[in-house]
Amino acid sequence: MTNKSNAVLYTGVTNDLKRRIFEHKNKLADGFTKKYNVNKVVFYEIFNSPAEAISAEKKIKGWVRSKKIDLIKNINPKFNDLSEGL
């Protein structure tokens, strides 16, 4: 996820993507996403198990920003909000 200006990137994991997006967009979760107005889904993946999702999250969080941006641009070059299609 990111904010309107794509200035910050947030990586997280959830078992209910629609619910989690709703929480971020409505600032129901205190912390980073609320502080930096992170409310735009620019990339997501679906995994078969929580362990796979957590492993991918940790891997991506360890990447430099440019690598994260490349990952997003491969799927969503214009950084459109993908939550509207869910």
Order of helices and strands: HHHH
Helix percent reads: 40-55%
Taken as a percent bin, the fraction of beta residues is under 5%
Structural class: mainly alpha
* End-to-end gap: 14 Å
- The coarse silhouette is globular
Oligomer: single chain
- Enumerate the spans where pLDDT stays under 50 for 5 or more consecutive residues: none
Question: What Rg, in angstroms, do the CA atoms define?
Answer: 12 Å
Biggest sheet descriptor:
none
The strand count comes to 0
Helix count, DSSP H or I runs of 4 or more residues: 4
Count of domains: 1
Q: Let me know the average pLDDT.
A: 96
Please characterize this protein's 3D structure.
With about 90 residues, the chain is mostly helical. The mean pLDDT is about 95. It is built from four helices and no strands. The protein has one domain (about 15-85). The protein has helices spanning about 15-25, 30-35, 50-60, 65-75. It is about 40% helix and about 0% strand.
What are the salient characteristics of this protein?
mainly alpha; globular
